[in-house]
Amino acid sequence: MANREKNKKILLELAKLSQNCCCADCGAADPDWASYTLGIFVCLNCSGTHRNLPSVSRIKSIRLDFWDDELVQFMKSNGNHAAKNFYEKFVPVFYYQPQPDDCEVLREQWIRAKYERTEFTEKTSERPYTAGVYEGMLWKKGKDNGQFLERKFVLSVHDFTLKYYKEDESKGPKATISVRDLNATFQPEKIGHAHGLQITYCVDNHTRNLFVYHKNGQEIVNWFNAIRAIRHAYLKTAFPTASDEDLIPWITRNYLKEGYMEKTGPLQREPFKKRWFILDSLDRKLLYFKTQLDAIELGVVFIGPENHGYSVSECVPKGTRGNKWKCGVIVETPDRQFVFMCEQERDRREWVEALKTVISKPMIPQDYTTEANIRRRR
């Protein structure tokens, strides 16, 4: 008969090994669960998806459940590193591998892709998001009325574009979007759908948003990785000497910070108005919109480094009108001073910390072009 405490101790020691000390699927530290059919250690969040794959994966707690000797031996013989070498052997370089804070649909489809569909065990596996052309229907939010309507989207590596169409496709695409400045990030809470995806791009140096979703989780993640595939192909063409390691952060990215702040005008005598702000640390842009689901930005602030005259600090503005929020933030730029108000002290601390993160980064060549383009808009 198995020794419960002895086997628990063995499992806990296995989970502390360098190859097992992070979740096999999202990388979260100190996993407390294990799949005794796959031989991997996973976190609580990822264990939920594994429970939904009973034909592939069976889950137990390494602390609370009873383990037979043969199952413990199986875990000793396998582990996260062995599973990674098999199930992730041919993951495309552009394919997004979820992090602990990522949304559920990304984690779920990554787990299903690895263990249920075994998409990455063979080099020649057919993957729809690598075909060069990806098309299908997505539910898109209307720019004015806010309703989501089905629209056909076509993503093509041949001309590096994303097109979408209204009902009558014979009239041509409603919009043709270059992937040059395209970004995609999952925003389920903002969009109000578990599979909500925000697609951002530039037109005449102004940022525009598309908010879309698909009812099928696999399909929306396929769209996301198809966008990443074409972005990777574009970047390889635009920067042929750059390594994949250098290009990966530029394929798509999550925004460093988002949320509402109040903003006043350049004279700081105008009434404060509530705006939705997005801090894009990669492009060094602080964008603001009327609401969080606006299609077009109202304005943008370039956030340069300290040695170029940029800084951020907390403040208590005086002589201003209309501000209901009292936690102030001042952003100094070479051209002007921006004053923002946060609702809570915690919000202010987070904004100041995020802005300082961007200010602490040195400029790269692309940043000078971005800064010049923003200044020309004024």
Automatic annotation (TrEMBL):
Transmembrane segments: none annotated. Signal peptide: none annotated. SMART domains: ArfGap, PH. One of its GO terms (biological process) is heart development. Pfam families: ArfGap, PH. It is found in: Cytoplasm. Keywords: Cytoplasm, GTPase activation, Metal-binding, Repeat, Zinc, Zinc-finger. One of its GO terms (molecular function) is zinc ion binding. SUPFAM superfamilies: ArfGap/RecO-like zinc finger, PH domain-like. Residues 131-232, 254-360 form the PH domain. It comes from the Eukaryota. Residues 8-128 form the Arf-GAP domain. Gene3D superfamilies: Arf GTPase activating protein, Pleckstrin-homology domain (PH domain)/Phosphotyrosine-binding domain (PTB). PROSITE patterns: ARFGAP, PH_DOMAIN. GO terms for cellular component: cytoplasm; plasma membrane. This is Arf-GAP with dual PH domain-containing protein 1-like. It comes from Carassius auratus (Goldfish). The lineage of its organism: Eukaryota, Metazoa, Chordata, Craniata, Vertebrata.
